[in-house]
Write a structure and sequence with these properties.
The complex is a heterodimer of chains A (112) and B (113). With 112 residues, chain A is mainly β. Chain A has strands spanning 3-7, 10-14, 19-26, 30-38, 45-50, 56-59, 62-66, 70-75, 84-92, 101-102, 106-111. Chain B contains no helices and 11 strands. Classes of the chains: A mainly beta (112), B mainly beta (113).
Chain lengths: 112, 113
């Protein structure tokens, strides 16, 4: 069964304390892995797309990496404004065109 | 910056009532998606349109849910009758074409009492 699993479910960090979020996937042929940020009561906001193992993308304090079975979202020296839920989603060959399978998300809290 | 618009932002209704949500995608985007997100979960696709045609509604509970995109632009999602388990965030997303990055709207938070 196609599946996306994110861990941990929740993560509490002190400001400046770097860490990583994990997204593991089992799909029949990956066509892209997406990271979104979601603030409470709002829609997901696009962060990164990764297509092949070994690929990396960076944006400010965030860096996303991809292997054949998982992706990591590394957060370096986080600030309180980085607090949000981070969603991982995959598009795969077995799915409907454009269809994304989302994980449940990791809720990140950064305390000053 | 172009955005996906949704209304209403919040809706409270009683079970067995009918509710409707509206979505206006980014101009020129041919593909439109409706997702349901239960609190603490990731979004799950309900229906996908390519222009005015439905390309995937396999997860849409068709006994009570309906969706249309008559002119291939804006779209309406309807629930009739609403049930307690329908309480969730309903998200609309659009993309220039299938298989391309999806942009999400702010969502409609539905509470069924």
């Amino acid at each position: 069964e196609d599946q996306v699993t994110q861990s941990p479910e929740a993560l509490r960090l002190q400001e400046g304390e770097s860490s990583s979020l994990n997204c593991s996937y089992t799909v029949s042929g990956l066509r892209g892995l997406f990271w979104y940020r979601q603030d409470p009561g709002k829609g997901p906001e696009f962060l990164f797309t990764l297509y092949s193992a070994g690929e990396e993308k960076e944006k400010e304090r965030l860096k996303a990496t991809l292997t054949k079975k998982e992706s990591f979202l590394h957060i370096t020296a986080p600030k309180p404004e980085d607090s949000a839920t981070y969603l991982c989603a995959v598009r795969h060959y077995g799915g409907s065109q454009g269809n994304l399978i989302f994980g449940k998300g990791t809720k990140l809290s950064v305390k000053p | 910056e172009a955005e996906v618009a949704q209304s209403p932002r919040y809706k409270i209704t009683e079970k067995s009532q009918a509710v409707a949500f509206w979505c206006d995608p980014i101009s020129g985007h041919a593909t439109l998606y409706w997702y349901r997100q239960i609190l603490g979960q990731g979004p799950e696709l309900l229906v996908q349109f390519q222009d005015e045609s439905v390309v995937d509604d396999s997860q849409l509970p068709k006994d009570r849910f309906s969706a249309e995109r008559l002119k291939g632009v804006d779209s309406t999602l309807k629930i009739q009758p609403a049930e307690l388990g329908d309480s969730a965030m309903y998200l609309c997303a659009s993309s220039p074409d299938t298989g391309v990055l999806q942009y999400f709207g702010p969502g409609t938070r539905l509470t069924v009492l």
